Amino acid sequence: MFKKSLVLSGALVFATAGLANDIESYLGIGGGVDWSRFKENVTYTAPGIYKSSSITETKSAFSMKLTGGAIVDQNHRLSLSYIPVFKSYYNIHNFLGAYDYLYSLDGDKKIYGGIHLGFANFKGKKDASVYGDKTAFAYGLQGGLIYELDRNLELDFGLMYTKHDAKLKYQETVGAGVDNSTVKLEHSLSALVGINYKF
């Protein structure tokens, strides 16, 4: 299902571009900061015993972005992006298709807004490696400002809000009881700065 969705997203980009009169392809790279919200639930059950606790916290980390796609008729941008986020105990790998509407402010500046959807791989590391990994649906909104440096180069300043559906689970026998732990990636906000090359 994951591979099929990426293929369908890519097909949509090229099929739409094929119907357009004015097409510019582009590749881009960028980086920034991601703030992700996690919710951890822990329960312990044993004969005659039940304990539970819940912690919700937001953690920041470095994020990068590799992207490519097409600008169609100057106002419509279609793209596919890989956006990894590297946190202390978890890594998040986002694979997203996106649509943006571009609006010109003047000769060298544009603002944009749009939607994205795809999948995110949520993986524990270090002490959290016992949780393994989970790939689940992700979707959200983005917006930003584009500043054109010349005909082929542009700076892209953007914000992304992504809703996630990824949850990691771990079960361990402790004495006469069982510990059940879950960590859910709820949502994330990213501030990214990148440079795009159009051709």
Structure description:
Helix content is 9%, strand content 75%. The chain is mainly beta and 199 residues long. The chain has one domain: Porin (Beta Barrel). It has an 8-stranded antiparallel beta barrel with strand order 1-2-3-4-5-6-7-8.
Features:
mainly beta, elongated, 199 residues, 9% helix, Porin, eight-stranded antiparallel β-barrel, 8 strands
By helix and strand content, what is the structural category?
A: mainly beta
In terms of quaternary structure, the protein is single chain
Estimate the global geometry from the Cα principal axes. elongated
- Note the run of SSEs as H and E: HEEEEEEEE
**How helical, in percent, are the residues?**
under 10%
The CATH architecture can be named as Beta Barrel
The fraction of residues assigned to DSSP E strands is over 45%
Number of strands: 8
Strands ordered across the widest β-sheet: 1-2-3-4-5-6-7-8
Number of structural units classed as domains: 1
Low-confidence stretches: 1-9
